Amino acid sequence: MKKKNMRGLTLAILSISLLTVMAGAAMAPALGAVKDHFHECSAMTIQLIVSLPALFIIVTTFAFRQLCRWMKTRTLALAGLALYVVAGAGAYLVDNIALLLVLRALLGISVGMVMPLSTGLLNYYFPPEKQSRLMGLSAAMNQLGGVVATMLAGVLASVQWNYAFLVYLAGLLAMVLVAVWLPNERLMAEGSRVKASTLVRFHPSVTAMFFIMLLFFVYPTNFALTAQAQGVSPLATTLIMVLLDVVAFVVGLYFARLMKRFRRQMKYAAPLFFLAGFAVLSWGVGAPAMIVGSVLIGVANGAGVPYVNTIASIKAGREASTTVMPLISAALYLGQFVSPLVVRPLADALGTVNAPYVVAMGIGVLFLVQVVLTRRHHALPPQ
Questions:
Q1: What does pLDDT average to over the chain?
Q2: Whole-model pTM over 0.85
Q3: SS3 of the chain
């Protein structure tokens, strides 16, 4: 493939990464406005707007191999992106919480169709020596999407609650890039499939991704609500949440350099920074503590996601997109979906405003133990 075409291909793949985070977390700043509109609904129901897509992403991810049998890559990506736009932006038109949640479920299906492509195609088309940089760029674009979408959703929600869902129209740009640059090939290699042995082999990476998202989603599902309880304005809340995505974006951009300099230590970055961030949010009060805590959590997420993807993709080889990446994607979104279901009851039992962050610290300890016990498996193989 020509150099110009490779640049276009990279841009098309990264445009998918730009969109995937918007499935859930981008709506976090709007939860306060949505709660005010649907005031009769419980906090758990409102949090489903952020976490419900993850459940349907998981289901679709496990059907990804079959989807690859039915459709070639460009066709699959365009179908997923079209559903993404319709289901995401379509929520603007509804004023019923049940129908809204149905559209959020459809949005999850759309992301499940394209999420494995956003990392798997980088592994398929590019050699191992380039994958640390590209996985970092993929994570950075994911966070950049979070920056733009979070800011826009917060601003639009301040005008009217349903305006926030218009951010999903960004999928139209990705559709254009995919239509122009992505080859319409069939990814399925002979005999490549998700097996029980695949899960056994890659369980450290799959478990680590689950912990990363379990911890990270404590933040978007609770931050706007806890900030509101502490008297922080909606605008300040949005800006602080955007800051987290900016930090994660920068870490993703420099991920390859960090890997070269701190190769042995990078495996510990995510659990340690999550622990530090949630400790600050647990014990601190007001905007300054929220800023520091958000920055630390941004570092954890910005380093953790590309690290896990890089290790798994290099170990799996060119068949990663149809073997281990669906498992990684499933773990990622399982963590997102389970997070409020695990954290909220425990936080309610503690009964304090910052209780979700205290629970997150406990989960962070378990994550650190998991990394220490599987430290050999977390080592990046020679390139």
A1: 82
A2: no
A3: CCHHHHHHHHHHHHHHHHHHHHHCHHHHHHHHHHHHHCCCCCHHHHHHHHHHHHHHHHHHHHCHHHHHHHCCHHHHHHHHHHHHHHHHHHHHHCCCHHHHHHHHHHHHHHHHHHHHHHHHHHHHHCCHHHHHHHHHHHHHHHHHHHHHHHHHHHHHHHHCHHHHHHHHHHHHHHHHHHHHHCCCCCCCCCCCCCCHHHHHHCHHHHHHHHHHHHHHCHHHHHHHHHHHHCCCCHHHHHHHHHHHHHHHHHHHHCHHHHHHHCCCCHHHHHHHHHHHHHHHHHHCCCHHHHHHHHHHHHHHHHHHHHHHHHHHHHHHHHHHHHCHHHHHHHHHHHHHHHHHHHHHHHHHHHCCCCHHHHHHHHHHHHHHHHHHHCCCCCCCCCC
